[in-house]
Design brief:
This protein is of the alpha/beta class. The chain folds into 2 domains: 225 residues, Rossmann fold, CATH 3.40.50.720; 90 residues, Alpha-Beta Complex (UDP-galactose 4-epimerase, domain 1), CATH 3.90.25.10. Helices cover 39% and strands 18% of the residues. The protein has 11 helices and 15 strands. The strands form 4 sheets. A 7-stranded parallel beta sheet has the order 3-2-1-4-5-6-11, sandwiched between helices. The chain has a 4-stranded mixed beta sheet with strand order 8-15-14-13. It has a two-stranded parallel sheet with strand order 7-10. The longest helix has 21 residues. The structure holds guanosine-5'-diphosphate-rhamnose. The site of guanosine-5'-diphosphate-rhamnose (GDR) has 23 residues, from helix 4 and helix 7. The site of guanosine-5'-diphosphate-rhamnose has 23 residues, from helix 4 and helix 7.
C-alpha cells in the first residue's frame, strides 16, 4: 500500500485519480485549498469516495505549508493536479495562473528535491505548451512555442521538471496532457458547457447555447483513461515525459453535432463566423449560436500527436472512444435534469 498525495483533489482529474488509487488499495491524502463545502465535494461524492480521503489544507501559493504537509505525510507519490486550469480564464488572470500553475509546481519540486524518501512526482503538463503546429505529428521532443499565459505557465513547470531531474536527480515526470473530459468536467470548459446546455434545451429549460470558435479542433479523451496513464508514468523506475492523447482531432462544431444527436437533435449548420447557427432539422429550432464574447484573444490550433511512446513504454492507449465519451456526458446531463 502506497501513500498518494493528490493536489487539486476536488477537481476532475484529482477525483478520478483518488478513485483509481483507492481501488488499488492505496491511502489517499487529498490536498485542497479553502473550505470543503458540499458544492466543492460534489465530484468525490458522485464517485462515492469523499469519506475515504484524508483531506489536508494545501495551497500552492504557500511554500511553508507545502513543505510542512509533505514532510509530515511522507507520500510515496505526489500528483500535482492543482492549477488555474482554464486557458480562457488565463487571459484575465495571468499572474494568478503563473503563481499557482508555475511557481506552485516549483514549490512542490523543491520539497521533493530535499525529501530523504525520494517521492515520485507527477506534473500535469499540457498540449498548450506546443502553442502552434510545427510537425506533422508532434511528440515529446517537438518544439514548444506557447503564446497563452496558461501555456507559458505550463511550459515553465514542464522545463523546471526537466531541470530538477537533470540538476538534482529528483523524480519528476510529466504527462503532456491533451484535452480530457468527463461528466465531472467543470462547466467553463466547452464539452461540459455543450452537453449540459443541450440537456437543458431538450428539457425546455434553456433556449439556445452560445459558443465561441466552432472551428477549433481538439483531441478529446476520457479523463478516466488519462488517470491510468498518469498512474503508470509514476510507477516507472526513471522519470520521463509522455504525450497523452487519442491522436484524433475533432472540431467544436462536430463535437456539438455528436452531443446534439445523443440528446435527440439533428443539427444542420448555416452561415459562417459570428453568424453561424445550428438548427434542429426536424423542428427548425435554433439550438446553437455564436457569441464573440467566447472568442479568445489567441486560440492556437492543436497539433496532431503521435502517442507511440506512451503505447510502447507504458502499454497505454485510450480505452474510451469519443463517441462513448460524448454518450456518457450527455446521458449524465439528461439524468441531472430536475423537472
Ligand atoms: P482548452 O479547453 O482551452 O483546450 O484547455 P476548453 O474546453 O476551454 O476549449 C476548447 C476549445 O473550444 C473553444 N470554444 C470554447 N471554449 C470554451 N471554454 N467555451 C466556449 O463557449 C467555447 N466555444 C468554443 C475554445 O476556443 C478552444 O479552442 C483544456 C484545459 O483542460 C487545459 O487545462 C488543458 O491543459 C488543455 O485542455 C489540454
Amino acid at each position: 500500500m502506497a501513500k498518494v498525495l493528490i493536489t487539486g483533489v476536488l477537481g476532475q482529474d484529482g477525483a478520478y485519480l483518488a478513485q483509481h488509487a483507492l481501488e488499488h488499495g492505496h491511502e489517499v491524502i487529498g490536498g485542497a485549498r479553502g473550505e470543503l463545502t458540499d458544492e466543492r465535494l460534489w465530484r468525490l461524492r458522485h464517485l462515492g469516495i469523499a469519506d475515504q480521503i484524508a483531506f489536508i489544507p494545501f495551497d500552492l501559493g504557500d511554500s511553508a505549508l507545502i513543505e510542512q504537509q509533505i514532510k509530515q505525510h511522507r507520500p510515496d507519490f505526489i500528483f500535482n493536479m492543482a492549477a488555474q486550469s482554464s486557458v480562457g480564464d488565463s487571459f484575465s488572470t495571468p499572474l494568478a495562473t503563473a503563481e499557482i500553475g508555475g511557481m506552485g509546481a516549483l514549490r512542490i519540486f523543491e520539497v521533493a528535491r530535499w525529501a530523504d524518501w525520494a517521492p515520485h512526482v507527477f506534473q500535469a503538463s499540457s498540449s498548450e505548451i506546443f502553442g502552434c503546429i510545427t510537425d506533422a505529428q508532434h511528440t515529446e521532443d517537438s518544439s514548444f512555442n506557447p503564446k497563452t499565459p496558461y501555456g507559458a505557465t505550463k511550459l515553465f513547470a514542464h522545463i523546471m521538471a526537466e531541470a530538477y531531474r537533470a540538476s538534482y536527480g529528483t523524480f519528476v515526470s510529466t504527462g503532456i496532457l491533451f484535452n480530457h473530459e468527463s461528466p465531472l468536467r467543470g462547466e467553463n470548459f466547452v464539452t461540459r458547457k455543450i452537453t449540459k446546455s443541450l440537456a437543458q434545451i431538450k428539457a425546455g429549460q434553456q433556449d439556445t447555447v452560445y459558443l465561441g470558435n466552432l472551428d477549433a479542433r481538439r483531441d478529446w479523451s476520457h479523463a478516466r483513461d488519462f488517470v491510468e496513464a498518469m498512474w503508470r508514468i509514476v510507477q516507472l523506475p526513471q522519470p520521463d515525459n509522455f504525450v497523452i492523447a487519442s491522436g484524433r482531432l475533432v472540431s467544436v462544431r462536430d463535437f456539438t453535432s455528436m452531443a446534439a444527436a445523443r440528446a435527440g437533435f439533428d443539427l444542420v449548420w448555416e452561415d459562417h463566423g459570428v453568424n453561424e447557427k445550428g438548427f434542429d432539422r426536424k423542428t427548425g429550432k435554433l439550438i446553437v449560436g455564436v457569441d464573440p464574447v467566447f472568442y479568445r484573444p489567441y486560440d492556437p490550433a492543436q497539433p496532431k500527436v503521435n502517442t507511440g511512446k506512451a503505447a510502447s513504454v507504458l502499454g497505454w492507449t485510450p480505452q474510451t472512444t469519443l463517441e462513448e465519451l460524448v454518450g456518457e456526458m450527455v446521458d449524465f446531463e439528461l439524468q441531472q435534469i430536475k423537472h
